[in-house]
Amino acid sequence: MPKVGMEKIRRAQLIEATLEAIEKHGFHGTTVSVISKKANVSTGIISHYFGGKAGLIDATMRYLLEELKQELLNHLPHTKNHHARLHAIIDANFASVQRSKKAAVTWLVFWTQSMHSADLARLQNVNSKRLISNLKYSLRHLIAKEKVEWSAQLIAAQIDGFWLRNALTHTQHSSHNQAVETCKTLIDKVICDYGLSTK
Asked: What is the pLDDT of residue 171?
């Protein structure tokens, strides 16, 4: 009879093995056999918990999305200062856990595969909408109403663009810091240009 809590441990173990396998072998080289060997479990365990590779990849992406969500919650200041909140969103998206090599490679695979998988495309859509929604929430308190959507899209595009460029070029910590500062500068510029007359 399985030990209490073993399923949670096994799932976490297999997700970690998947991240390591994708980093080393890429998406197509990450087979059920490769993952099971890294996790030191039988291939049947993967089928039992996730239904196969597709289900495990889906679970791995949900894990990264949850990590990103938790990073945001950790970075958000306990205040109603929406300017600071926007800066916190930037910090969360460039946090060390999001730019680690394992996470970066898996995110790149995720974006690529989402063009061929309805399930992954749906997760990508959720991720994109969450970022836009978080940006718009605070922008509504700071800038003219007609500029909120445009500004949120602009800031989100800059976040994704810098993150992607840094991931593809394997840049160092200083480059990530520069990306963070540039994104924050854009936010400050948007607020300066379109800010409400009374705040």
From this structure: 64
